[in-house]
Every structure is written in C-alpha cells, then in structure tokens.
Here is the input.
Amino acid sequence: MRALGWITDGVVLPRVARVAAIHVPPDDVRRLRDAITAPFVLCPNHPEFFTDWMLDKWITGRFAPMAASWADPLIVNGMGAAMRQLWLSNGLVAAVHGSELERALAYSGQVLARGHGALIHPEGEVNWDNASLGPLRAGAVRIAEHGAALAGRAAHLVPLAWFIRFREDATPGLQRELDYVEQRLEVHVPRLAGPAQRLGALFDVLLEREARTFDITLGPRDVGFAQRFHDGLARAVEMLCESWPEYRPASLPEIPEEAARVWRSTARKVSAPAAEFKKPIAALDRMLRLVPSGLVEPTVTQEQVGERIKRLRLDWLRGTTRDAITRFVPRAAATRDVFIRVSDAVVVTAPSDHGATLALLRERMEGARACAQQDGLDRLGPPVRYANPFLA
Here is the structure.
C-alpha cells in the first residue's frame, strides 16, 4: 500500500484525477493526529467516484497506511482475481451485504484494536454533490463499536471532508464531455447553449425516455424539470402499486421521491422477483439518479455541471471500451484543487445510540465540508456559474 501511495501521489492524482494541489491546514493535521491515538474510523464525505478513493489513499498513506479501507464490492471484486487478491491482502474491505457483513465488521474491529484504524464513507454510495452530504449509514458506528469492545476503551469516529474546485474555467472541457455524451445518447443541443443548458436538455430527454417504461406523459418542458420529475415519480409509484401489489412496501412516504426510494430499496431485498418486475424498477432507479443539484438556486456552478456529466456517463453509457474505463476512472474536465478539513472526533463506546451518534457525526462532517468550501473560495475566488437549467 505504501508503493500504491507513491503512485497515487505522483501519477494518479495529478495526471488522471487532475488534482494539482491538496490543501490541509496545520491545525486540522494536528486534530487528525490526535484523533487517531485511540481506535479510530476515518469518515470522509463521498462526492465523487474514483477521486475520493485516491484521496482516501492520500490520507491513509500519510496517517494510517495499515487502515482497513472499505470500498464498493465492484471495486474489490470487479477487476479480476489477481486484483481482488491484491486488494484483500492489503486491507481493502468489500462493503458486502447479508451474512458476510458481520465478518467484514468484525475484521475491521480487529484492525482498530491493533491500532491501525479503518476508513469508510458513511454516505455509502457516491453522493455526486460536492456541496452537500447524503444520508449517513451506521456502518462506521458499528465498526467503532467492535473496535472499542476489543480494545477495551472508547473509539473515535473522525469526521473529515473535502471540497473539490476547478482552478480554471472548465467550460471547454465540459463542452467536450457533453459532445461525447450527446453523441452516445443520440441527443443534440447546440454548443452555443452552454454546458448547463445542454445538461438540462439531456436530463429532459432521459427523464422522458424512462417515463415511457411506465407509459407516463410528463407534460410540456416549460413547466420546469422539477415539476415534471415530481409528477413522473408520483405516477411511477402509483403504477407500481397497481401493477405489483405483492411487492408493495409496508408503508410509503407521501413525498414521491422518498416513496420511490422506498420502492427501490424494497425491490432490492426481494429474493426472486418476477422478470417483468425488474424493468420498471430499473427505470425507477435511473429516474432517481436524475436528481440535479441546486434545484431552487438561480445558478449552478461548473463543479455541479461536471459532477452531473460524470454521473450521466456512469449511469447511461455502456458498450465501448472508453465507457468501461470511464466507469472506473472518470476524468475531470479541467485541473482542480482539493481542500480538506477535519472536525473533532466523535467518541463511541460499545454499544452506542446509533441515531444520536450519526446525527453528531453528520453535524461535524458538514462543518468540515463547509470550512473546506470556504477555503476554496478564499484561495480561488468565486466559482464559474451558469444559469440554472432546472428552474421553470
């Protein structure tokens, strides 16, 4: 892992992830070093695929090279047997489900008790939003509980967050990315419209394509993406309830987006669903992945546009070598800086109140994220902004 750390610092971060500089204030470095004197779990935010993984390695390489780092099973197991053996033999843990989860938690607890610590993104899935946190899951707390029990003393959850900023105008790079995405999806919007407006048009087309699975009419585009998205999800949930009552969740929230997420979560737990049921659930999942950043803001940043383009490529583009590589290694549209902040550790004993612990962890992660964002403003100035295409 030390050799991989050298490659990450010298090659992958600057040349692949296009990260020119990483900024961590000295006080935050000291706070991190103090926190890892106890059994510890590093808890960073998760706004971007691949770059986050490289930043994990950058941090662990400097502060916790033997940490048990959790990753998506696709990363650990999806690159072939040789790579799987390399990852597993060097402390990477697949974020598995079911019966194997307890073994993974117990292993990570043992690593904590030996003083090496662990790293896990409490949001679980990639959030694809530099400016906010997604819902936190209790895996980090459970690892800390295992470690505290085995070590016979309290463990630390270490809240940290980074904010990634383009250090230049990324418009040309975003336009090139959209050229490729539009060509692959057979959509064309004039380049003069600019990156944000082209992105908005892509979202409209993709929402309409997924709505056809449910035979939904969304209405005219001039009512705004947010309203059409809301109406489409509401009708999709209604049709699932009508057509598949045997799979209907026990209770559904009134808000369509939340109800759709409950349907998706419930469907994933069905052991042997009907083949015909998989198609509408897959369409519902893709619709949920079209939630754009900043629906109510008058403008969007170039970072937000870049995040959504990457997510579109990950979710919709298949079938070419270029697409397959991009799924694992999405490339940034321009050179970037990363700003990292660390908050005070959250103390965990075994057992603990998961809800209260996660609420405190979230508060401190959000505090670190906000400070990192301000660091970016102070150093690089205001970001490039475009008119928000998702407003009516």
